[in-house]
């Protein structure tokens, strides 16, 4: 039921009543024609005038004052019963009904209405008003260009603007939007900065519907999917809090600081459970903590994002991914660019980290599984978005181009498995349709001039909300082609993911073979070097007994080697000098020997020619 607020005004406040009456026409002004005025004008002859078959209209613009609306509720009690009859008492109601049914007026009214009611019933029985005439006819698929239009803009009402860090849609339809506001720049927040976050009505951007008042600015805010009145928030000081909108703006319960995160709680997620009260959170301190909002004095479970479960080596996380169909498994995107797949109920601490996917060179800011294909997931970090398969850990199966601006957030379309969205630091929103294009986005929207930091798509896939650095949340409506699944889209995406996974597996095996060959080659070279080294060592240690020599003996051996080498060198030089003739000798004999040798060589060459 729609709540309506009626504005009332007294008749006396409208002023004096207007009284109209008939009377004869009166002439107030009469201006006779003046021929002298014609001298001031020039007659146009001929005259060309374009005419239309429609009435000429004048367009006027006017700025009106902004009208702020407010929703008011009323207490309704069941009416129609006399004061002496309690509608909750069955005996009194039955007694009063029998009294009314005996009344002649009641009987005549029923008989009078009976004929018209009988006619309507017969008409409904004759004509099926719910019949589908074209049930088996396929709707024509219109290939229209992908577009999006801005529906509403929600601005931070405070004077000092803060970043819209997180957005959460109301679970029961696209009526409300919860937005968390926080200044993420370390130690740059002034004391006058507000810590409040807001719940907005989608149709009323002028004033928030409700204010959320935390003890520290909220970095994330999530609606409970089972209870639309409860919200879970992660604070900048590491605490986790929850609110019940029926109980006001203050948090119902907070986690103690000593049991909370040591860094800002960047992500909180509700867990699929029977009670609907369990959740878990992560932070850049490397911890993953599980909570129950019925008892928030301490976490129900704890885990560190490290293979050996050591706190000082844990990797800080910015985002989490949880799939309700796999209740014990989750994924975390870390500051180091890794994606860690975890199992909460592993048998040993070493098995809690199931796999690590490496590929990003900067922090991973967004992580989400494909709603239709849970084995494939999207990660957004640094200047690239990647699509992964759980079967391959070494590399992603698909990735976007390298952007010139940094990526901040991303998510899949809840309806179309081939569509995902990306926000960037230059204020643009990219819509990717991997069936239509793989190299470039299908649609690029310049949402605002400042960086976009948060993104969330409504369950129907039609509406998308983005939050910017200056606290502006923009609500966009996508064209029909971006949220309507094609006839063969699921099969096409399945084939695409399987093909890319198979290709990456082949490349990975080939890469391993190349690395193995390189290792074997390096091993052979090392063995050769070791053999040479061994022979060199044996030469050095010839004649020596086993065991290491003392340092003094090693020094003496080195000195003996130097003297021995020096002696050999001088012996060679002296022998060469002895062979050479001295200047006092007679060179006649030497010249005769050389002439004899040259003549013998000439005779040999002539004999060969003959």
UniProtKB/TrEMBL annotation:
GO terms for biological process: cilium movement; outer dynein arm assembly. GO terms for cellular component: microtubule; outer dynein arm. Its main location: cytoplasm. Keywords: Cell projection, Cilium, Cytoplasm, Cytoskeleton, Dynein, Microtubule, Motor protein, Repeat, WD repeat. It is found in: Cytoplasm, Cytoskeleton, Cilium axoneme. Signal peptide: none annotated. Transmembrane segments: none annotated. Residues 514-553, 564-579 have a biased composition (Basic and acidic residues). InterPro entries: Dynein_IC, WD40/YVTN_repeat-like_dom_sf, WD40_repeat_dom_sf, WD40_rpt. GO terms for molecular function: dynein heavy chain binding; dynein light chain binding. Residues 514-610 are annotated as: Disordered. Gene3D superfamilies: YVTN repeat-like/Quinoprotein amine dehydrogenase (2.130.10.10). The keyword Repeat applies. Belongs to the dynein intermediate chain family. PANTHER family: DYNEIN AXONEMAL INTERMEDIATE CHAIN 2, DYNEIN INTERMEDIATE CHAIN. This is Dynein intermediate chain 3, ciliary-like isoform X3. It comes from Biomphalaria glabrata (Bloodfluke planorb). The gene is 106074542.
């Amino acid at each position: 039921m729609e709540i309506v607020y009626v504005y009332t005004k007294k008749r006396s406040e409208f002023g004096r009543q207007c009284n109209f009456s008939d009377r004869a026409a009166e002439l107030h002004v009469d201006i006779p024609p003046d021929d002298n005025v014609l001298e001031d004008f020039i007659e146009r002859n001929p005259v060309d005038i374009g005419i239309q078959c429609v009435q000429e209209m004048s367009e006027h613009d006017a700025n009106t004052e902004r009208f702020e609306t407010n929703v008011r509720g009323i207490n309704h009690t069941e009416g129609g019963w006399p004061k002496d009859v309690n509608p909750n008492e069955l005996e009194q109601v039955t007694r009063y009904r029998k009294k009314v049914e005996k009344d002649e007026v009641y009987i005549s009214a029923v008989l009078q209405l009976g004929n018209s009611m009988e006619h309507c019933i017969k008409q409904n029985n004759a004509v099926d008003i719910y019949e589908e005439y074209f049930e088996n006819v396929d709707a024509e698929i219109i290939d229209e260009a992908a577009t999006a239009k801005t529906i509403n803009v929600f601005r931070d009402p405070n004077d000092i603007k803060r970043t819209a860090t997180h957005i959460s849609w109301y679970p029961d339809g696209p009526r409300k939007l919860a937005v968390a506001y926080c200044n993420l720049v370390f130690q740059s927040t002034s004391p006058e900065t507000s810590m409040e976050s807001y719940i907005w009505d989608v149709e009323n951007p002028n004033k928030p519907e409700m204010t959320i008042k935390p003890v520290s600015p909220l970095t994330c805010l999530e609606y409970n999917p089972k209870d639309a009145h409860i919200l879970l928030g992660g604070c900048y000081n590491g605490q986790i809090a929850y609110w019940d909108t029926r109980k006001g703006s203050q948090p119902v319960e907070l986690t103690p600081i000593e049991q909370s995160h040591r860094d800002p709680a960047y992500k909180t997620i509700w867990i699929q459970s029977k009670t609907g009260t369990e959740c878990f959170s992560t932070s850049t301190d490397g911890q993953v903590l599980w909570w129950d909002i019925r008892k928030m004095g301490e976490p129900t479970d704890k885990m560190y994002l490290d293979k050996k479960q050591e706190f000082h080596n844990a990797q800080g996380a910015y985002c989490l991914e949880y799939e309700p169909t796999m209740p014990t498994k989750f994924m975390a995107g870390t500051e180091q660019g890794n994606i860690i797949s975890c199992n909460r109920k592993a048998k040993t601490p070493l098995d809690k980290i199931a796999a690590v996917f490496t590929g990003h060179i900067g922090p991973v800011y967004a992580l989400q599984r494909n709603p239709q294909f849970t084995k494939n997931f999207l990660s957004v970090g640094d200047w690239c978005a990647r699509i992964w398969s759980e079967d391959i850990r070494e590399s992603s199966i698909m990735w976007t181009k390298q952007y010139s601006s940094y990526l901040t957030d991303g998510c899949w379309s809840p309806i179309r498995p081939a569509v995902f969205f990306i926000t960037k630091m230059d204020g643009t929103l990219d819509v990717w349709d991997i069936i239509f294009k793989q190299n470039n986005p299908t649609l690029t929207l310049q949402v605002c001039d400042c960086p976009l930091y948060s993104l969330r798509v409504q369950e129907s896939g039609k509406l998308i909300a983005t939050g910017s650095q200056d606290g502006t949340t923009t609500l966009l409506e996508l064209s029909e082609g971006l949220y309507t699944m094609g006839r063969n889209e699921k099969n096409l995406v399945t084939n695409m993911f399987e093909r890319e996974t198979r290709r990456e597996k082949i490349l990975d095996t080939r890469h391993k073979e190349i690395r193995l060959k390189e290792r074997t080659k390096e091993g052979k070279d090392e063995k050769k070097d070791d053999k040479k080294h061994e022979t060199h060592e044996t030469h050095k240690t010839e004649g020596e007994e086993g065991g290491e020599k003392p340092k003094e003996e090693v020094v003496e051996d080195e000195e003996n080697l130097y003297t021995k080498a020096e002696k050999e060198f001088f012996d060679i030089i002296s022998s060469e000098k002895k062979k050479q003739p001295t200047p006092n000798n007679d060179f006649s004999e030497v010249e005769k020997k050389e002439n004899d040798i040259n003549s013998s060589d000439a005779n040999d060459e002539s004999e060969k020619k003959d």
